[in-house]
Amino acid sequence: MSNILTSMVVFCALLGSGLTWSNVDSDSRGNGARDAVVDVVEAFRKDIVADKEVLATNSALLEERVNNILADVVDFDDFSKKVMGKYYRRASPEQRMRFASVTKDTLLKTYGASLLELDADRINVLPLGPQGRGRETKVDVDFQMQAGGMLNISFYMEQSKAERWMLSNVVINNINFGLTFRKQFAVMMEQNRNDIDDAISAWQDSLARKS
């Protein structure tokens, strides 16, 4: 559970078990964010969990299906921009595209199989708590692991200009993975004398080692 996609995989892997939706208030913003989560749940239930045995022996097909589902809720270009932080402006268009591609492809290949390995006893989506004044809506989820222990996952959903609800960030047990990723890339830049191409290569190797 060392990065934002792992967190999402944990969330989606819960589909194979009982799902408990707690009552949510009538706030339209919260309902819209919840509906987006429900759609992802149903997509994984139909396209991933139901074909678990087939996908276990076909990594390419698994990666394709996970990508198709996450494409509806994750903007990898925006995510990559946030991870690059202050270095984004210094990067050329080609470097930005490479970083986004490396981040997406590496995470999907590295953690897609986790979806087939995890098993959940139950998941409880909590009622919406107080929300900030920004565009994000926080949806808290309690996940009890089969081996014991509880994970609290906060999904920060943000409505795009096209009025689609997209995942903006994930916080697991109070660890902000979006911020963690940004700090990690900054370290890569420092270690590679601020050479963006070398830092991207190091970033790719770092993600792959976390499998």
TrEMBL record:
Top-level taxon of the source organism: Bacteria
Keyword Glycoprotein in annotation: no
UniProt keyword terms in alphabetical order: Signal
Nucleus keyword on record: no
Signal peptide bounds: 1-22
Matches recorded under PANTHER family: INTERMEMBRANE PHOSPHOLIPID TRANSPORT SYSTEM BINDING PROTEIN MLAC
Protein name as it appears in the record: ABC transporter substrate-binding protein
Organism: Marinomonas profundi
Lineage: Bacteria, Pseudomonadati, Pseudomonadota, Gammaproteobacteria, Oceanospirillales
